[in-house]
Amino acid sequence: MEKDSSVLDDYALSLAGSERPRVCFLPTASGDADHYVVRFYRRFSAGCEASHVSLFRRDQGTGGVEDNLATHLLEQDLIYVGGGNVVSMLGAWRAHGLDGILRKAWRRGIVLCGPSAGSLCWFDQALSAFHGAPRPIRGLGLLPYSNCVHYDAEPARREEYHRSVAEGMRGGFAVEDRVALHFSATKLARVVSSRVGAAAYRVELRPRGGVRETRLPAECLLERRPESPSRVLEEPPAAPPASAPAVGVAA
User: Fold this and answer.
1) What's the CATH code, domain 7-250?
2) Cα–Cα distance between 161 and 173 in angstroms, integer?
3) Which helix (H) or strand (E) is 123 found in, with range?
4) Which of 26, 98, 171, 235 is deepest in the core (most CB within 10 A)?
């Protein structure tokens, strides 16, 4: 949910395959911040069946879901995870059983996406820098790679990501701000962005030691955007069968 652009949100919605998709917001990483929930509804309620799940608030408010979270989440076309503290978020999810529900959602082909913590969580390993220096963490493991976000905005992350991969962290993908990775099942299908000249990076261990970083230029969606939001911007390469899980990850 970029404050000045809906391009990446529109792209995620295009993967849902519905004229009016059911979209549920998980603001857990922000502690269910009210302003974040309000921003979600302002962005998504006009064209979607929007809802949210709060794990920290007794009063869910309009659109909030309190009972039978599994049934509700597994009925969605897209689950959108907000940014914030990924470590606290994963702990809360595990305490409430949402980790297992989200794995089941992924197997059913529900689109999973989100910025920052909402990107890190889907990977086997990730680099978190919330409240301190960047450090490796364990994610849900849906994608068998590591992930690093804010690669251009916070230079310390790049240095620590290289060091972590060199010391045994799984190789993976780093992304600059306003760049999204689109995975079909566990394969990277596309790199897209809401700004010109942005990129993602494949970061992996060299066979004889050291770390190799390969730049993956992002396709700028602003250059291809139609006058009104479309449910399908363009067919991604190597489109999976309808039953294959998809993860759209935004940084």
Assistant:
1) 3.40.50.880
2) 10
3) strand 123-128
4) 26
Cα separation, 20 vs 201, in Å, equals 33
Q: Which residues contact 86 (CB under 8 A, 6 or more apart)?
A: 29, 116, 117, 120, 121, 126, 128, 130, 137, 139
Q: Count how many residues are written for the chain.
A: 251
- Considering Cα of 185, then 247, then 138, then 251, what sign does the dihedral take? positive
Helix (H) or strand (E) segment spanning residue 213: strand 211-217
Pairing of strands 199-205, 211-217: antiparallel
Burial track 139-151 (b if 16+ CB lie within 10 A, e otherwise):
bbebbebbbbbbb
Q: What is the CA radius of gyration of the chain?
A: 17
Sign of the torsion formed by the C-alpha atoms of 174, 180, 184 and 189: negative
What's CA 68's distance to the chain center, in Å?
24
Task: State the catalytic residues.
Answer: 116, 150
Angle at 79 between CA 22 and CA 153, to 5 degrees: 130
Cα torsion angle, 12, 16, 19, 22, sign: negative
Going from N- to C-terminal start, the domains of the chain cover 7-250
Q: Is 87 helix (H, G, I), strand (E, B) or coil?
A: helix
